[in-house]
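re: ur question from the group chat, yeah i did fold both. here u go
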Amino acid sequence: MIKKDVIIIGAGIAGISAGYHLKERKINNIIFESKSKPGGHIGNFIIKDFTFDNAIHLSFTKNDYVRKFFDKTDYITHEPNPHCLDKEKWLRHPIQNNLYNLPMEEKVELLESFLNRPLDYSPKNFFEWLIVQYGEKIALRYPVEYTKKYWGMEPETLNLNWVEKRFRSPKFEEILSGALDDKNENHWYADEMRYPVKGGYYQFVKPMADSLDIKCESAVKSIDIKNKTVCLNDNSIYQYKQLISTVPLPKICKMIKSCPKDVLESGKKLLWTTVDLISIGLNKPDIPPPYLWWYIYNKENLASRGYSPSLKSPKNAPPGCSSLQFEIYNLSTKERYSPNLLIENIKKSLLDMNICEEKDIIFIDHKHLPFGNVVFYSDMESDRKIVNDFLKKSNIFSCGRFGEWDYFWSDESFMSGKNASEKVTINDF
């Protein structure tokens, strides 16, 4: 048996942050990562000299402490310019504020519905919230349909605890102005987006990761909280004084020996989305449309979002080439999509939209991410609390998007790892 002071499970951004901040406090730690390299959700992969992130990833953090680390990496600054694809029409994001490209009769119908939206009751779920915010016509045409693609669920089944920082409440003057004029106003979360010059989003934390003891291809099979040991996939046993975990809550419940039945049942109830990535290399330098990322409302296109890694940084593609990537979300309880189905679906959409010709395509790659986003169904918080309370009682400090089971951006996951490290007290050693 090998003894370690602190064991961290998972070398994503939260695990790396936890390990780094422990090291700053002179507390020895080791990180076990099941994949072949660190990074987790902010990791990347290379295909024929094209660099792709695991989903879009741009930093817009306003947290000065996080920027102290991220800004050590040379980065490119982008102005947010997201767009939306509605059938064959491109509209700026947020779509309800940018209806200019629609036919006049459609704009009038949507504006009239906004003015007649119900304001005399408090919404109890996400569907009701959308109707109150946007009116029935706008809600049904855009966010309701997008919810089904992005969350894999009807909006009636989602609660409102995640909405505030993700959605902007519109004003009539904004909607009217955006319907009458081709506005170019920024309604995004931030005024700028930052991305490393080369090496993908992971470069923001790579210097920290390189300074840590990270054991890749070392999956933890089981955790014995009574004897404070973890068993790895090679059956080696490590004993810890303190344990920090970034493991998704439904998985860690199954990993813990003698986990209480109510905790296991709550873990089973938790829902999340998976992500299928379709990554495309093109042998031409320019991509129409020239937007960094866009939201896809077309039902026939299975992707929820598309974006260009080579626009994030030219270093993400070889000279004279460019790249695209698409995200397809699916609920964890549903059957996985066939990779060939997704590839053909995205390819057909590209050709139908004249974004490229078949001769322009160097490759189309599929990659599956088993965890995408936490789903806020009606009773999620009570199920999450049962699991998290048990972990705290068991002296497991759980952190990160899937460890805390929250809708974290990367800077929040970074701070979650830091906060977990601070729960490790020097008196324990």
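okk and heres the other one u asked abt
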Amino acid sequence: MTSKELGKIGENVACDYLKNNGYRILDRNYVKLWDDKTKGEIDIVARKNKVISFIEVKTMVDNPDFFPEDKVNYRKQKKLTKLAQSWLSENKVPLDSAWQIDAVSVIVDAQTKKAKFEYFENVVSEY
């Protein structure tokens, strides 16, 4: 299985969870190009109770030495914030609307093909 296929599995697991927990999926795989070399992607944009969540999904196989959510570091958070603001602007949503950056960690067991899922809300504390 390629990393792209694994990522798609994680995103599908996350979307199922979100839908089953009252979220409405607004967008998937939003990509923004800032120049010839810089691009960014938000995996899932969803809304629940008037709050828009920009969700980064990290998927790994088996028991990694670190947790997938650890990859949503300061640099990634800063990039996700910039992407979220671009999405809001392009979709004519006022920037002062309620929104947050969330993260999803999916660890897939290679033997059983079952996924362990964790959802982290509002992972960016400042900007």
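fwiw on the second one: The chain is about 30% helix and 35% strand. The mean pLDDT is 86. idk if thats what u expected
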